[in-house]
Model the fold of this input.
Amino acid sequence: MSALDGKVVFAGIDVGSLSAQAVLLEERRDTDRSKSSAGGKMSARSIHVTPNPVESARQVMGGLLDEVGLSWDDIDCCVSTGYGREKVQGEGMSNANVSEISCHGLGARALMPGVKTVIDIGGQDAKVIRIDDAGELADFVMNDKCAAGTGRFLEVMSRTLGIGFEELGQLALSARNRIELSSRCSIFAETEALHYLQRGADKREVAAGITRSMADRVAALARRVGVERDVVMTGGVAKNPAVKAELERILGVRLLAPPIDPQLIGAYGAAVLARRESSC
Done:
């Protein structure tokens, strides 16, 4: 660790079904972590898009370490989370694996101490997490049985519209009206959207219907655990402004903007857990 000048490094890897995220936290070795800030100093971060969990973890962490001039041996503790967390640990790239529910909750709370509700929409599932006054997990609900209400749904529907995934939100916001999609099933919703497009419907209005359908599904989850302010949205779908706006409208709350890319919050929470040392 001589190259680190007396510093320690903690890492978090969040491996989802569509992408992998990694975060490094760095601080002096003699820091009293019981008295220091909850999260530590973030020294580097990265996002990599690939469907293979082990390969994506190698690439996202390898690239991040190259960027800051470190090696795997320089990491004091690494925690993996997300869809591929167990495979990542099994390959020796992390010391422990923790559920994304815990990591998104902890990451959001460390960044924004007043947060009580976390809405996390990833590529494969959607979760709503409620945090108590002590910062502990109070309740959660997850949708992992159906693609509707997940990033995969938006990805498929973007292809149906002939646009990029990142374009969908702005296209939906530009619509003057909205075409309602009656189906709650992702497969039937895709067929329904195609039907409207073939009849000459405005793409913007179909896009608005798609984002509203997504928000309706997630809002139903949120109501099951109860929404308490402050509320933050995490995961890649948090960067879709139309979904965010619809959720604010349906739930009657303002979603806070996290101080880092919302897609990184799970990895950040994993790194915070690694920093607690008991995880390794």
